[in-house]
Amino acid sequence: MSNIVIDKSKCKACYLCMKECPKNLIKISDDTNNLGNRVVEFQDPNGECLGCAMCATRCPDLAITEVYRG
Ligand code: SF4
Ligand code: SF4
């Protein structure tokens, strides 16, 4: 099982990661960045994340880190 961590302080709210995720696990949150744009959050209540890292690879601001769980 895999997980990701999004550093909201680095997120520019471009939403490229959302479009990339094959499982649609990244959503727009209610939190805003310093430009007032709504940043993204990881929502995976059913443990569907594939650990494919497509989201992390796509993020131009290196805001996404993968965390592997056993
Ligand atoms: S690692 Fe893959 S499945 Fe998991 S959130 Fe990122 S794009 Fe989606
Ligand atoms: S790709 Fe990176 S900067 Fe863009 S919305 Fe996703 S986490 Fe934020």
Question: In brief, what are we looking at here?
Answer:
This protein has 70 residues and is an alpha+beta fold. Helix content is 14%, strand content 31%. It has two helices and four strands, in the order E-H-E-E-H-E.
CATH architecture: 2-Layer Sandwich
Return the domain count: 1
Give the strand order of the largest sheet, numbering strands 1, 2, ... along the chain. Answer: 1-4
Q: Give the averaged pLDDT, no decimals.
A: 94
- Number of helices, where a helix is a run of at least 4 consecutive DSSP H or I residues: 2
SSE order, as H and E?
A: EHEEHE
The top level CATH class name: Alpha Beta
Which range does the strand content fall in? 25-35%
Report the structural category: alpha+beta
Helix content: 10-25%
Instruction: Please name the CATH topology.
Output: Alpha-Beta Plaits
Sum up the overall morphology in one term.
Answer: globular
Gap from first CA to last CA: 6 Å
Radius of gyration: 11 Å
Total number of strands? 4
Major sheet characteristics: 2 strands, antiparallel
What do these coordinates show?
This protein starts with a strand and ends with a strand. It contains 2 helices and 4 strands; from the N terminus they run E-H-E-E-H-E. It is globular, with a radius of gyration of 11 Å. With 70 residues, it is α+β, with helices and mostly antiparallel strands. It has a single domain, classed as Alpha-Beta Plaits (2-Layer Sandwich), CATH 3.30.70.20. The relative contact order is 0.40. The structure holds iron/sulfur cluster (SF4) (2 copies).
